[in-house]
């Protein structure tokens, strides 16, 4: 098979990308998650919590909902439709922690769930922590001058 024949074969087998509709779905679904976050902040604010506490409770609630919907096999179906709109918000982080744990539950709690739970999210946590420490150190050094 020549390169030209191979490229034609790949072109036939590769589905057409629907960039505009994928971007629109991601934008709308991510926006809905963010609107839900704003509604939760307002609800927690009306319940007497301060702005910082309401924001913290909103983050906790969104993480819980992302994990719960992943466990009930609902979040993956939403993510399949919405694409990146469900990956970027904090609910996507919860999904990335819960999914490997669910897949490994047949291997046991320690060697399965315990070992696999941070397979995807672990590097994000590690490098996020490292980057924030590095940024804080740079800011501290700059503030000395």
Task: Note down, in words, how this protein is organized.
With 145 residues, this protein is mostly helical. It has one domain. The protein is 79% helix and 0% strand. The protein has seven helices and no strands. It has helices at 3-13, 19-46, 51-71, 75-82, 90-103, 109-116, 121-144. The longest helix has 28 residues, at 19-46. It is extended. The model has no long low-confidence stretch (mean pLDDT 85).
Gist of the model:
The protein is an all-alpha fold and 145 residues long. 79% of the residues lie in helices and 0% in strands.
Tally of contiguous helical segments: 7
* Low confidence ranges: none
Distance between the termini: 65 Å
Name the beta content range.
under 5%
Main beta sheet: strand number and arrangement?
A: none
Mean pLDDT comes to 85
User: What is the overall shape?
Assistant: extended
Q: How big is the Rg?
A: 21 Å
Order of helices and strands: HHHHHHH
Q: Give the domain tally.
A: 1
Q: Indicate the structural class.
A: mainly alpha
What's the β-strand tally? 0
Helix content: over 70%
């Amino acid at each position: 098979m020549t390169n030209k024949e191979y490229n034609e074969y790949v072109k036939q087998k590769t589905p057409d990308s629907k960039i505009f509709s994928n971007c629109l779905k991601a934008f709308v679904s991510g926006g809905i998650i963010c609107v839900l976050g704003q509604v939760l902040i307002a609800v927690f604010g009306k319940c007497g919590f301060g702005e910082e506490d309401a924001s913290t409770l909103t983050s906790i609630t969104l993480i819980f909902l992302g994990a719960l919907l992943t466990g009930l096999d609902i979040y993956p179906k939403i993510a399949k439709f919405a694409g990146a709109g469900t990956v970027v918000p904090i609910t996507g982080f919860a999904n990335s922690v819960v999914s490997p744990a669910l897949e490994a539950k047949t291997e046991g709690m320690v060697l399965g769930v315990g070992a696999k739970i941070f397979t995807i999210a672990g590097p994000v946590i590690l490098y996020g922590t490292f980057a924030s420490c590095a940024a804080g150190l740079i800011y501290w050094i700059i503030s000395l001058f």
